[in-house]
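One-letter codes give the sequence; the fold follows as tokens. Both lines appear below.
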Amino acid sequence: MPSKLATMPQDKLYFTWSHIMETVARLASQLPPDAKLWGIPRNGTIISGLLAHQRDDLRLHPFEPQGMLSGDPKTIVIIDDIYDTGRTLKPYMEQGFQVATLFYRNHVPRETTDRPHFWASCVKTEHWLVFPWEKK
């Protein structure tokens, strides 16, 4: 992992804003240019906002995507911070939505064999990830 990360006591991995912005840029480059973004409340909302700014995109949707289901769900990307067990994103994937995360833990047991459609970085640590907008 880049030197911008620091492990602290209690098995936590702290990310800096600089690292997050680099990771957001990597993820933004993978997303379809015409995709509508919607963030899972809390961390996904923050990341989807950062992605919208990175892409200079005004199509960020702050509300639950159920109202958007009349269109093609393949044009909507559900955003979250990390994909580990799959529990949070599985219901959206089952409805045909694409999902994108900053981080993907591909080594942990999960409730599904699915994986996100897009991710910026594969994380191979059991440390709790702490983002710069969270309380330390």
